[in-house]
Amino acid sequence: YRKHEWDKHGTCAATIEVLNSQKKYFGKALELYQHIDLNGHLLKAGIKPSSSYYKMTAIKEALRGFYGVTPKIQCLPPEEGEEAQTIGQIEICFTKELQLVNCVELEGESNPVQAHFKLGTSELSVCNDTLPTYYPSEVQ
């Protein structure tokens, strides 16, 4: 997994001095992860991993309120016979200078630096704003 992440994202990051080795790259990723404290911020907004459902718009607004930027949130669609989607991945995006930036503005760029927090799954898609949303404890 680590080799894959380095080959995919790290080689782009290697042009930046603070990220130009595997050790620096993953060390900085951990530092940013702790600094971002995603679960802690969501808890402060009353959004906790649980069996109750949340509105996607409330989750987005809470994160925008804390970070001042729009993250990219991806979900697993509802299982058959269920109504709720499940958050599978939340991406917080940074510029090469490691400033927070809206993820949506980066769609067309070839090399945004992204912090990936994900459940290892391939069927993720952009979350539906109108569906009830389940926030599982495995999301990082």
UniProtKB/TrEMBL annotation:
Pfam families: Ribonuclease_T2. InterPro entries: RNase_T2-like, RNase_T2-like_sf. One of its GO terms (cellular component) is extracellular region. This is RNT2 Ribonuclease. It comes from Sylvia atricapilla (blackcap). GO terms for biological process: RNA catabolic process. Belongs to the RNase T2 family. Coiled coil: none annotated. It comes from the Eukaryota. GO terms for molecular function: ribonuclease T2 activity; RNA binding.
